[in-house]
Amino acid sequence: MHRICVFVALCLYAAYGYESCDQKIMEDTICSLCSQRKGSEQQEAGRQVAFFVYMSQNVLINTISKYKTFVYDRVETNVGNGFNVQTGNFTAPESGVYVFHTTTAAFDKSHSTIEIVANGQVKDITWADAMDHNDRAVASSMTVLSLTGGDVVYVRVGLLFAGNYLESNQYTRMSFSGFKLA
Asked: What pTM value is reported for the model?
C-alpha cells in the first residue's frame, strides 16, 4: 500500500509539471501491486499444515485409563506447529478440511478402543483387539473433518481396554497424523 501512495504522490508531483507521469504505467503499477498483495493474502490463508507423531515405546495398559488422551512423544513432522507434544492435542491453525489418521497395535491378550475426538465430541472409533489370542492386532482409522481455526483434535483411550500393552516399537508404531487439504 505504501508503494501505491508513493507512486500516486509522484504522479501528482508530475501533474504540476515537475516531471511526466504516464497514466498507463501508473495503472499497470497499481494493478501489479494489488495482485501481489492479493497473492500474499491467499498464500497466508492457504499455508501448509501437516503433522506426524508417534509413541517411542510400548504403552503399558496399567498406565492408561478411560478417556485418557494419548500424548505422542516423537514428532517427525509439525508443519504449521498445530501439534502440541505436551498435551497430545492438534489445534487447527486455520479453518478448512483436515484429514486425520491413527494407528494402534495391541499385543498378546491386550485390547483397547481408540477414539478420535474434536472439541470434546467423538468423531471416530477403532478397536485394536488381541484380547483372546497371543499375537498383535492393529487398528487404524482415517477421519475427514471440517474444522474452524482453533478447533482441537486428539486421540484418547475409549471405553474398553485390558491386557498387557499397546505396541509401539521396531515392528509397529502407535501414531497420529493429519493434514489440511489444499
From this structure: 0.74
23-58: per-residue pLDDT in tens? 666 566 565 655 555 554 445 556 899 999 999 999
- Provide the pLDDT for residue 10: 44
Cβ atoms 166, 131 nearer than 8 A: no
- Beta-bridged to residue 24, according to DSSP, are none
55 vs 84: CA distance, rounded Å: 14
Provide the grid cell at 52.
506426524
Give the up-direction half-sphere exposure of residue 75: CA atoms within 13 A in the CB hemisphere. Answer: 17
Tell me the torsion sign for CA atoms 13, 15, 20, 24: positive
Nearest to 145 by CA among 64, 69, 55, 82: 82
The model's pLDDT over 70-120, given as tens digits with 9 standing for 90+, comes to 999 999 999 999 999 999 999 999 999 999 999 999 899 898 999 999 999
Set of cell numbers at residue 87: 498435551
